[in-house]
Amino acid sequence: MDSWTPINREALQSLVNSQLAECSPALRSIFEARKVDPYLASIRRPGSQDPEQVFVVARKDDVVMYYEDVEESFNLSPVSDDGWIVEPGFEQDTLRWALAKWTAD
Description:
alpha+beta; 4-stranded antiparallel β-sheet; 3 helices; 4 strands; about 30% helix; about 30% strand; globular
């Protein structure tokens, strides 16, 4: 069995660039308007007592888009004032699908 290792910033940036290239111009524009320098945010997964870290890649108001490297997907979640991911997502979305959900808000 392979051991899991968290994604690093360079691999994340490569993944974002690759998946962004597959997005429509409208979705790329949305991402460009909301992107942030990727940073680590704390998340507590259901059933776990220990916090873990995920990379936030975009933000609009109190909602962030983050990369969930356990599920290998992008998710949207409200974020608390102190930076915690409030509602962990398990959508297994590509960047394109997460951006499309964001535009539906």
